[in-house]
Design goal:
about 60% helix, elongated, alpha+beta, four-stranded mixed beta sheet
């Protein structure tokens, strides 16, 4: 597991432990992260973390911060202390994936060799299979033409690629012939 997933899961776990709404926690985290990115100070090391914490605490001014805000502040300060803030974009991407998964949302990219005007029966079959396999409540489809495929299609679901293109079949044939079988 990469560090971005580890940090994202740790934040999600802290939200769960404190019984904070996941979407609210992530939205608060994103808002604070974007504020930190806009600051003209270095965002790594203990000194930067102390300055950021003071800045956030001064804004809250001793009031009891909502749990989502408190957790987000503590987590971002920890990321700065551990010099992980430079990887913030990949952590944010992982948080979005976890939120999508929790909400049953699956993003699917369909790549076709030739432009197709309407949804095909094949596309319907594939989307139904993806829904069954992933348990998705909702699919977000992105359709685009990719002439490099020569023919056929490619489906991308998260990190998984289903390549039914003529180009990949030709590559497989070439590799098989080069090995001598």
């Amino acid at each position: 597991m990469n560090f971005s997933k580890t940090w994202a899961k740790a934040f999600i776990n802290s939200l769960d432990r404190e019984d904070v709404n996941l979407e609210e926690g992530i939205d608060t985290f994103l808002a604070l992260a974007s504020r930190i990115k806009s600051l003209p100070i270095a965002v790594y090391g203990r000194n930067a973390a102390e300055r950021l914490e003071k800045l956030f605490r001064d804004e809250i001014k001793g009031e009891a911060a909502p749990p989502a805000l408190e957790l987000s502040v503590r987590f971002l300060i920890l990321m700065v202390k551990k010099n992980m803030f430079r990887h913030m974009n990949s952590v944010i991407n992982e948080l979005q994936k976890l939120l999508d998964r929790k909400n049953g949302l699956v993003k699917v990219s369909f790549e076709y060799a030739t432009p197709s005007g309407e949804k095909s029966i094949e596309e319907d079959r594939i989307t139904e299979a993806i829904k069954k396999r992933t348990g998705a409540v909702k699919l977000v489809l992105e359709r685009r033409q990719n002439p490099r495929l020569i023919g056929g299609y490619r489906v991308i679901v998260g990190d998984e690629v289903i390549d039914a293109s003529v180009r990949s079949q030709l590559e497989n044939l070439k590799n098989t012939l080069q090995r001598g079988y």
